[in-house]
Fold this sequence. Notes:
By secondary structure, the chain is an alpha/beta fold. It has two domains: 8-213 and 337-398, Rossmann fold (3-Layer(aba) Sandwich); 241-322, formyl-coa transferase, domain 3. 38% of the residues lie in helices and 17% in strands. The strands form five sheets. It has a six-stranded parallel beta sheet with strand order 5-2-1-6-7-10, with helices on both faces. A three-stranded antiparallel beta sheet has the order 11-12-13, covered by helices on one side.
Amino acid sequence: MGALSGIKVLDLSRVLAAPLAAQTLADLGAEVIKIERPGTGDEGRTYGPPFLKDRDGHSTGTAAFFLACNRGKRSVTVDHATPEGQDILRRLAMQSDVVLENFRVGTLAKYGLDAATLRALNPRLVYCSVTGFGQDGPYAQRPGYDGVFQAMGGVMSANGHADEPMKIGISMVDILTGQNAAIAILAALSHRDRVSGEGQVIDMALLDNGVAALSHFAMNYLVSGEVPQRRGNGGFGGVPSQAFDCSDGMIFIVAGNNRQFGALCATLERPQWAADSRFDHPGGRVVNRDALLALLRERLREHPRAHWLALLDAADVPAGPVNELPQVFENPQVRHRGLLIETEHPQAGTLPLLASPLRLSATPVTDYPAPPTLGQHTRAVLRERLGFTDADLDALAARKVI
């Protein structure tokens, strides 16, 4: 029994941010019904290559992108543009605790699937809407994707080298928005069940999440009035917090306090650096960053990274290799923590997945049903939840409602 066992989620969302939120709820034990358009489904299914291959090595047409954010859900195909489809979705919402959607502002009101309509039918409903810019403001009607929000929200300004801002490779604003949406939903459910007895509406905007993610980078600016310089593979806290080249690859070292810095200097056989008046306190190391980093770079290039990592580990200095993905999944700690799991997929057989990082002692995440095939559960869900007969379902399918 998961922590959210008994919670029913109606997931009307597509692509990444909102589906990730719904996947987190599914990992925690909620029953998540994913609504997809008949015939085409979530457009995230097409975001390849790579595409998942079946047992015979043929493409299933399902992109790896889709598999990353839809495990644990049941796929039901319903055309929300038809009156019958709208009625099905309203009836499902009346039985649900949560509705998640990421349509453009105002779109679902045309179909009677907006927050006001559904919450009038089910006052206990928590309705979470994920959009690019939020439900109000001068940009509310604009479309947008992760890269737009990394650029506009300042995330790109924090990354890259001094002369060139750079996007984070992964869709970080989408991912953060999905995580924060899940947190907001859990808070709303707790408030409903402990305080009010009623649900509420959650307005999640990717732009908001991108700006909020600036954290201490933004605070440095707000306190000082100075725009922080981009530092490539360096951090914005203590110094050193930096990637360094060794003779055969890169490592990342953080020595933010005097004890760690002294241990680092001793490990590098340069104890005089720790006593240098430029570097003997954290503020001095920040002010004299360039001089210190030049010394560290020169010394670390003299040996391979395994040599330095062994010594740094023995000295209790935080450090790690800069790994490519094959090395990530070969890492003994990653293996021990079980971060790569396998599940059974109806077409592919065994499917590798990333495990949930949420570790709960009484209600651990142990069940990882595969991401569904398109419409895999349509008939079963509509029979169970709404009482449709086979004849009803055949008629709906003939009219392309499902």
